[in-house]
Amino acid sequence: MTDDPPRKRMVKLPTGGQEGGRGKPARLKTAKQRTPSQQAWLERQVNDPFSAKARALGYRSRAAFKITEIDDRFHFLKPGARVVDLGLAPGGWTQIAILRGVTNIVGVDLLPVDPLPPAQILQMDFTDPACGPKLMELLGGAPDVVLSDMAPNTVGHRETDHLRIVGLIEAAIAFALEVLRPGGTFVAKSFQGGGSDQLIAGLKRHFTEVKNVKPKASRQDSSEVFLVATGFKGR
After folding, report:
1. What digits encode the pLDDT tens for the residues 48-77?
2. Which fold has domain 63-232?
3. Cα 142 versus chain centre, distance
4. pTM here?
């Protein structure tokens, strides 16, 4: 590998969030402290057009483009809406909500998150029974939108990891059903595979429309999809 100046190995910024307009993929020098999987992940981040555009626009993460595309289709992030963001770190979804006029938004994550005013942020375990009431106290009323980009820490055992994923989605759904105002919207990251049909069937009992959405910013080799449930029927 030639020792080109770093600027020559930079990825050409995409236009409009599309896959075109990319330069030659950059390869990073292998660091002894990185595992092969970490090395591959880092190279993918450097070469990913959405990650590059997120950095150029000052977004917290490439996930900002996912919620942007979803909201462009369903139009739930609007001025005056009350929003809860579950698993908000590093803040890409909350950032887009604020840019779209949302001023009453609360979020929670296990990880620390740099301030995103006017959002109110809790560093807490969402599954802690005390978390939900604290979020509602900060929000000051029933939310119009509950967002969940939560994902559990994986242990490398497929069945166990799948159960953890489904468990978090079910917890997010239970919370949304308890607090959403009638007509509200629920959006959650999910994964294709066993259990998704049951989750969708359950949501359809409580919402007028439920869709499985795969945004362009979601990598094609990922099983990641998003459940979008609109028109909450109320309790």
Report:
1. 666 667 676 667 788 999 999 999 999 999
2. Rossmann fold (3.40.50)
3. 21
4. 0.77
